[in-house]
Amino acid sequence: MTSRDIRQKYLKFFESQGHKIIPSASLVPENDPTTLFTGSGMQPLIPYLLGEKHPMGNRLVNSQKCLRSMDIEEVGDNRHTTFFEMLGNWSLGDYFKAEQLPWFFGFLTESVGLDPSKLYVTVFAGDESLDIPKDDESVEIWKRLFKESGIEAKDIHIGSEQDGYEKGMQGGRIFYYEAKKNWWSRSGVPETMPAGEPGGPDSEVFYDFGLTHDTKFGDKCHPNCDCGRFMEIGNSVFMEYIKNADGSFGKLPQRNVDFGGGLERITAASNGNPDVFKIDTLEAIVAGIQSALGRNGSKANYLDEKYKKSFRVVADHLRAATFVMADGMMPSNNERGYVVRRLLRRAIFHIDKLGKGDGVLEEGINSVIDSYKNSYPDLDKNRKKILSEAGAEEERFRHTLVTGMREFEKVAVGGRVSGAQASTLFTTHGFPFEMTTELARERGIEVDEEGFHKEMEKHQEISKAGIQEKFKGGLADTKEETIRLHTAHHLLLASLQRVLGPHVKQRGSNITAERLRIDFSHPQKMTSEEIKLVEDLVNEKIQARLDMVRREMSKEEAEKIGAEMEFGAKYGDVVSVYFLEDKDGKPFSKEFCGGPHVKSTSELGHFKILKEEAVSQGVRRIKAILQ
């Protein structure tokens, strides 16, 4: 079965259960400063999981493009990728465990045709310290489903992953694990969740490929073992909790289901092959890379174990970089662009390990686009731009390698490369860590790998702080005060345009619970009279009790009606437009936006501008509050 077959079967299956198909969001997230990229299907739906009404209803389904850059070092085995597609279905206060688990089981066994005897599941063991019970309800549902398939399903308490290596399977099919394995929120286990963050217990489904357990991973095998026998293919999150300010947990206004299933992994399971790089799309990319190498005289072949890791890294990284560039983010030294640069440069490094690299990057990217263009037309539409940017990055990197080699020779003189030196080689000179370690190994030089990773963690924390500070349209959280200021932000932009002129466009923003900040295009400092006029206009509209109305429409229609869009932002074919309008329906403001907002400007209070200043040539900044 091809991944496209399974994607279509999944969407149709849940459509038949009353779900509305929604488009994939961009890999570059809107209104979420917590992460660089969209890393899960639920991420764009947070406002609706918290209670906001979705215009498409309370049953939704899609296939979401995802990127997890933190997995970049894991790529090289048969299952880890940075880019992947997440099949997702959601219940926003509608159905719950009794419907979700049978539906997913039926999709796997009937639509995909997986043998139920090869399926194993895990559930949440509970946390007494937080007064969160274990998930016995899911266990009873799973037992019934397996029994209907002629399988007696024994439940086993495992606990931690380490406990699993000591306890083993014990003839079980349903396994209780602690929160680290069977609890889901964007920020991890319950203890690390910030106040206001939603989360809940989950139930994961694993496919058994029947491989012999490798004891180097632990004495005994269990579903969460990394030996390769089991692969997680789906996770149903029962999102019903929210973290309180005092650290306790309360119930969300509505119980939600948030399901995520790896398209590549389900496809691999349907093919009975644990190597995700042997599914149709990735296999075609590997073939394109191998063909280009062959034209250069390379004998490198994917079936040769010594070349597999490099083929996988090149295929994954080119796929990830291509998709991100199609969503408008090009290689650079800043935040998201830095990740794109790293993906391309790691791919080029591994291309050179496979043979002469002439034309291989271009062929690999073309293979990515050709494999996915029917499902994601933007790839083909942006082919020329993607190839141009990637080609320019390759040229820069090859020049960088010359400089990097010179710097490596300097640090290698001491007979040891410290973590700080290896980090500087990478972050300053773009010299891949793999190249540092390989060159050092050839010369019998030690590299402080632990020190390097510590230095990189520091670097990533600085980058994360930077993205939160400079986040475009950025809500720092979903507190009530932040939401009120976000709505005031709409009023402020519209008022600036009316007072200063239609040339005013948003160039960035950051909104916390304490204040809002907007960067906007304007050639000169605002006068005190202009500031007063803007302030008064915002307060006038607050007093007018304008309604905030959300409408879903095509991007083309939104552009025709003149809805404001954020500079540099990438939008899908279907967009949310928020209108602030009077009782007669006349809009004062209309903007592309992902929410959340208050229902009426009457909830805002008094608006006050604190500061107006320059940011850069032709860009001004305002900081304001609500009193």
From TrEMBL:
Single Gene Ontology BP annotation: alanyl-tRNA aminoacylation
What positions does the domain Alanyl-transfer RNA synthetases family profile occupy?
1-627
Q: Can you supply one Gene Ontology CC term for this chain's record?
A: cytosol
Which portions of this protein are annotated as coiled-coil regions? Answer: 539-566
> Which principal EC class is assigned to this enzyme?
ligase
Per its UniProt record, what InterPro entries does this chain match?
Answer: aa-tRNA-synth_II/BPL/LPL (IPR045864), Ala-tRNA-lgiase_IIc (IPR002318), Ala-tRNA-ligase_IIc_anticod-bd (IPR018162), Ala-tRNA-synth_IIc_core (IPR018165), Ala-tRNA-synth_IIc_N (IPR018164), Ala-tRNA_ligase (IPR050058), Thr/Ala-tRNA-synth_IIc_edit (IPR018163), tRNA_SAD (IPR012947)
Q: Which NCBIfam families match?
A: PRK01584.1
Q: What is its EC number?
A: 6.1.1.7
A Pfam family cross-referenced in the UniProt record is tRNA_SAD
| Name of protein | alanine--tRNA ligase
Q: State the similarity comment.
A: Belongs to the class-II aminoacyl-tRNA synthetase family.
Q: Which organism is it from?
A: Candidatus Colwellbacteria bacterium RIFCSPLOWO2_12_FULL_43_11
Keyword annotations for this protein, in alphabetical order, are:
Aminoacyl-tRNA synthetase, ATP-binding, Coiled coil, Ligase, Nucleotide-binding, Protein biosynthesis, RNA-binding, tRNA-binding
Q: Which GO terms describe its molecular function?
A: alanine-tRNA ligase activity; aminoacyl-tRNA deacylase activity; ATP binding; tRNA binding
